[in-house]
Amino acid sequence: MDILNALVAFANFVFIPAVAYGAQLALGALGVTLIYGILRFSNFAHGDTMAFGTTLTILITALMQGAGISFGPLPTALLALPFAIVLTGIVLVGTDRAVYRFYRKQRAAPVILTMVSLGVMFIMNGVVRFIIGVEDVTFADGERFVIGAREFRDATGLAEGLAIRTTQVITLVVAAIAVALLFWFLNRTRTGKSMRAFSDNEDLALLSGINPERVVQVTWLIVAALATTAGVLYGLDKSFKAFTYFQLLLPIFASAVVGGLGNPLGAIAGGFVIAFSEVGVTYAWKKVATYVLPESLAPDGLAQLLSTDYKFAVSFAILILVLLFMPTGLFKGKSV
Amino acid sequence: MKKLLLASTATAMLAGAAGAEEVKLGIIFGFTGPLESITPHMAAGAELAMKEVSESGLFLDGSTVTPIRADSTCVDASAATAAAERLVTSDGVKAIIGADCSGVTGAILQNVARPQGVVQISPSSTSPGLSEVEDDGLFFRTAPSDARQGAVMADIISGRGTTDVAVTYTNNDYGKGLADSFAAAFTEKGGNVTISAAHDDGKADYSAEVAALAAAGGELLVVAGYVDQGGRGIVQNAIDTGAFDTFYLPDGMYGPSLIEAIGDSLDGSYGDVPAAEGENVDTYHEMATAAGFDGTSSYAAESYDAAALVLLAMQAAKSSNGADYKGKIMDVANAPGEKINPGELSKALELIAAGQDVDYVGATNVEMAEPGESLGTFREYDITGGAVETVGFR
Questions:
Q1: What's the CA gap between B54 and B347, in Å, rounded?
Q2: pTM, whole model, 2 decimals?
Q3: For residue A140, which residues of chain B lie inside 8 Å, CB to CB?
Q4: ipTM score above 0.95
Q5: Pairing between strand B270-274 and B247-249?
Q6: What CATH code is carried by the domain that includes residue A7?
Q7: What is the pLDDT of residue A23?
Q8: Quick one: which of A52, A117, B187, B305 has the fewest CB in 10 Å?
């Protein structure tokens, strides 16, 4: 019974939140890593691209709700998502035409492109705040829980409750579908293969007749899809606020770097590594330990490694450690 | 001729000593700075009381009261000190109403009010630190100290038989001050605070914070935060994960948006807010509307009371000299005596002139405790069936 209680407490407060958060980070990191691999710069505007895509989704969701369209027990935002992806894609390709292409033609150094993305970030940041404001926006509707904590306690008779939110399940399912589609596209389609070729060796790819502008466009479209999906899932699961999306940039970059920049598989692994460390290091293990350990060994204190205030410090610390000891990341990416 | 001259001089001197004068009161609030949106209403509140007293013609043998405004900036202690210095030395004010923010209030008290022997009364400085400073009996405030709310919270919670609570507070002076004063008062009553952890406002995800709170455990979660900020995120997440079922929601967490956002799951939670209800408050709001400002704005009512208390104390001491009337403020604020509601200042002046006691109630149910600060009234409330129900006042 105690072991079960410990497991449930662990699942409820560590495992489930971390898995959902990890999936959201992984989708974000995939976008960053694709840009790095194919366009060869760190896209600082990614967090705000997520915010922009989510803003569009929220607006379209509101329109749909106004028109009486709903998705049954699932959030209406999922129906709005494809439209938002298309619009975000158009904006990103447009930004590329207007801004990035100029620097690409000049064969500008990656660091210059990174700085350019910083400028794009500030503009997007402002646009998002202008459209939707700086306040919290909750746009999740439909059924809130798959299992509620109270029902779980009543049903099993355990002391600990287990809550699984609908949005957490949706996050995992949607993320899995998105990743599967991405890998299928990269490995099985002609365009995907040409993207990988372009990423591996640009000159060779150009020689073999790959159209670079087309590769770039497709990349931006995929990034728009990934960023909007990541943003919407995060917003559904937590809440939308322009500022928090900007802050997400740090854990997302940490995930991409930990996994190995430019390596899609690494981005996914990195997302989960960062999420589990953030939640695990700041979790107070007292409750779990009290269930598992014999009474004499049970901790008096909270058994918490770091106060939750330092959550972001965990991503920073991992980022620094990885850059020091494994610059190419867990899955052999490009060194930074 | 000589006699006539002497006689007229004597009359003039007599008139000067006992007759009408122009009493100036300084109003020093942050008309620029972080509180600039509420300070105009606070100043208007104080001026409303002065006008009422002045126009009654009953104040100190027909003296008039003139307000003089100055800018405390709320954050810049040296600018506030200079402005207060000017009020006292060049304008000759007989009392300083202000300042608004605790930091500049303390600076003015130490640098101007004490050296010059001028009474200072603040309507909005709530820092517990101001209760302990040296003030030569010159400093008063009509807003309760944050420490007071901590004690009230401890009373309410232990009164309901709860002994183990977890505390989370918003990571600023307000949150930390409230959490600390609550923890001290609650421990003294034999309660046990399992964890007192800060949370930052403006984040989307509070699962890690709630996980730590849940691990520490407790029958109740005290949320000393803001209702539209991190506080709501914490409550939402704690309910979602089943970490806590019951919450204690102090003033910053009181608001309809919380019940709207969370719904039935909040049933059984309770809390307190500084009481801002009753006939007197309504009377005051009507007076403010008639005078052309917003009486419901934060601390506008406290400002009215601050000015009224000073003027009534002057009347009781028959002098506008700080050294004479500083001891009278507590007398006019507290029982025994005739209760004085807002808008009844002329009645109070009359009673005092006739030698009777008054008990100033004013717009905020003023009750002063040593060392010269308002006890404040707190409304204890329950959340039942998605609505707030008043349990009682403390």
A1: 13
A2: 0.73
A3: none
A4: no
A5: parallel
A6: 1.10.3470
A7: 95
A8: B187
